[in-house]
Amino acid sequence: MPSEHIVHFMSDGCQLTGTLHLPDQPKPAVIIGCHGLLAHRQSPKQIALAETLNQMGLAFLRFDHRGCGDSQGTQHAAELLAARCRDLYHAMTFLQSHSRTGPVVGLFGSSFGGTVVMAAAAEHPMPLLITFAAPVHSGAIHDGVVREIQQHNTIRADSLAQFHFDIRPQLPLLKNILVMHSEADEIVPVNHAGLIHEAAQEPKRVVIYKRGDHRMSDPSYQRRFLEECRTWCRERLGASLGLLKQ
Q1: Average pLDDT for 42-56
Q2: Under a CB-based contact definition with an 8 Å cutoff, are residues 231 and 246 in contact?
Q3: Rounded Cα gap, residues 66 and 171, in angstroms
Q4: Which of 96, 144, 152, 245 is most buried, judging by how many CB atoms fall within 10 Å of its CB?
């Protein structure tokens, strides 16, 4: 049966905590998930995705970035993207030497987590990428995010004026990407999905949920999300990992 294991690894001197979901088979390939800006690894989307991937024979790691959830550290608004990319890199390095996992074959990111996995994949190409509601620059979301940060005591507010990011120059380096977004997203405008899809290389796919929101609160969209992820994994990894009939 699939199993869950609490794991710890280091990133820039901070101990980060994660949950590793393992299917009942030896040395499975792994997909890593990154949560949103003010979220943590207990995201219902990530838990449901982990269960779905385990059914396909894939492992999944969901972890708390520094200063979030059960992980150590402090978040600095001025360097959030770079710091979280380093956290993700150290998660990848940790899994490469883990005795019970095979290669890291994919990344999933929701909201700002999607920004993180795209920035990381531009430097470390992956066979599979999945994003949901991911912003590619901070311009359209900056004011709302700043208000949230000011109310969130795990992020230092002394550098809020420097909270800017723009990964549009990295988008042409991406491929193997499934881009999902809700048309009525109240935080990240849906046109960000179009920017990603237009700039990325093939293979790529974009899925827009009509009337959906940023948190994917509609159960019907949650089910469709899992099915889209399942299909993309079969298409991108099926031939090499034997997932075609899963």
Answers
A1: 96
A2: no
A3: 25
A4: 152
User: CA 170, 139, 71, 130 torsion: positive or negative?
Assistant: negative
DSSP 169: G
Angle at 88 between CA 132 and CA 45, to 5 degrees: 35
pLDDT digits (tens, 9 = 90+) for 104-143: 999 999 999 999 999 999 999 999 999 999 999 988 775 5
* Contact criterion met (CB below 8 Å) for 202 and 175: yes
User: How far is 136 from 194, CA to CA, in rounded Å?
Assistant: 10
Give the residue among 146, 30, 172 at the shortest CA–CA distance from 80. Answer: 146
pTM exceeding the 0.85 threshold for the entire prediction: yes
Residues 2-34 as b/e (b if ≥16 CB within 10 A, e otherwise) read beeeebebebeebebbbbbbbbeeeebbbbbbb
In CATH terms, the fold of domain 3-175 is Rossmann fold (3.40.50)
